[in-house]
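INFO batch 0412 | record 1 of 1 | parsing
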Amino acid sequence: MYCREDISSSSVVCILLLFIVSSGDDEERKIILLRHYTPYYPINVPKELNRPRPNGPYKTQRVVKQKMLRHLVRPSTTRADSLVKLQLRSFAGHNKWSKIKRKKAVNDAARNKVYTKLLNQIAHALRQVDGDQSNAKFVQALQNAKSQGVPKSNIENAIKRGMGESNAAAFEEVSYEGSGPSGSLFIIDCLTDNRNRTGPMIRKIFKDFDGNLGSSGQAQWAFNMAVGRINIDGIAEKHHLELEEIIFDVAMQNGNVVDILSDTSDANAMVNFCVLCDFSDLNSIAKGLDEAIVEKQDGSTMSVDYVHLPKDENMIEVEDDVKEALIEMINEFEDVDDVQQVAHNVNLE
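INFO prediction complete | emitting tokens
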């Protein structure tokens, strides 16, 4: 039942309407009262009853409202009293599309956050080298964006920002260090166009989880800083052992490799590889793997970045309840658009 928005209690009004419809024989009074309390009433109202409402002149209902009316009222032309009898229908209150819409909104929001971070990396990399598109850092950022499916038009706009063709604000790299629950240490790398916005947001998250935002150097001692990382995803599991040997050989030939990891937990029988190396050798190793693996394996993708790896002797174990709080804390950091990477020294497995 649709009722006027200015009525304080919709339930009382609906009960009143049902009482009006089911009582008395004064059809003219019924329709006038129905008009007064709801904008929807039977379409085929006799012309002699089409009089102004008590609180103002009647305004012709739009066709859209008339269509909506059919879900509430079925007018009849046989008897006058049936004109004012509302046939109430039951509605489920939910449907399949509403669930799909909510899930889609969540997925779209997560994807947009990833896109924003990748596009900012492209613009920042170009600004650092005065628009030189052959720079290795720019090539890496561009490759990462393409591997994540960022639309071409968005990438072009980011390149224009990096070339200075737009009036967008310049970005700068900022790192925040601090401590969390149970002596955990954090390094938060950000790319921001406004430190006055990013700093308070990071400080608030530390405070919310009983942590403290510290000064530069508070956590760096516990990490191997800026270790190169190359992720190769989408390798068929049947080629696992064969390609693992090729990845190891190519990586060792092109630089100093720290470690090579593989993940076979993909439900689609796919294997993901992670190559950790010296940051100075990152570009040469990535180029060799791209030529030897990615270009020859359909459906495979490669992304290149860096990571702060905690030293083995500085890793800590925590209780399950603390672990849950730390996972929530990390998620809060990653939800900030300016945050590029979150490094910590806690074993969450």
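INFO post-check: The two ends are 53 Å apart (CA to CA).
INFO record closed
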